[in-house]
Amino acid sequence: MDWMGMFMPRLRPREPAESLSPPIEDDLDRLSELREQGSRLSLPHPVRGYLAFAGEEAARTSAEVLRKEGFACSVRAGQDGSWTITAIRQIVPTPGAITRFREQLQELAAPHGGAYRGWDAPIVS
């Protein structure tokens, strides 16, 4: 430990809460639907993201990685032999936050052969 570590704790750098990338049209459409249905988009929502995998091992490995990143996850088998992860995180659904949510899921699933299948959120009033 260096002398600075004695006085100032060493913290992990925080990930940005919002992406600087432009949002995709589907995300903006879903946010508009939530707003039209009366959801208060200034409040945190339990946003659910869906990932699809060809095999169980890849899905379970990805779910563990997602849990370590702060997502709540469930893994389900499909009738066609595919596997689906539902990853949930509480976020205020702004276009930048939803874009970051999508980017995180894509980044975490890609090394295991997963594919991002979209997101949804309940109405929060």
Molecular structure report:
- With about 120 residues, this protein is of the alpha+beta class.
- The protein has a domain at about 45-125: 2-Layer Sandwich (Alpha-Beta Plaits).
- It is built from four helices and four strands, in the order H-H-E-H-E-E-H-E.
- The chain has helices spanning about 5, 25-35, 55-70, 95-110; strands spanning about 45-55, 70-75, 85-90, 115-120.
- It has a four-stranded antiparallel β-sheet, covered by helices on one side.
- Strand 2 and strand 3 (about 85-90) form a beta hairpin.
- The longest helix is centred in the last third of the chain and has 15 residues, at about 95-110.
- The radius of gyration is 17 Å and the shape is globular.
- The protein starts with a helix and ends in a 5-residue tail after the last strand.
Uncertain residue ranges: none
What is the helix tally? 4
Largest sheet: 4 strands, antiparallel
Shape descriptor reads: globular
Task: Report the top-level CATH class of the domain at 44-125.
Answer: Alpha Beta
Kindly estimate the percentage of residues that lie in beta strands according to DSSP: 15-25%
CATH superfamily of the domain at 44-125: RraB-like
The strands making up the biggest β-sheet line up spatially as 2-3-1-4
The structural class is alpha+beta
Q: Tell me, rounded to a whole number, the average pLDDT.
A: 90
Distance between the termini: 49 Å
Q: Please tally the β strands and state the result.
A: 4
Listing every helix as H and every strand as E from the N terminus to the C terminus, the arrangement reads HHEHEEHE
Helix content: 25-40%
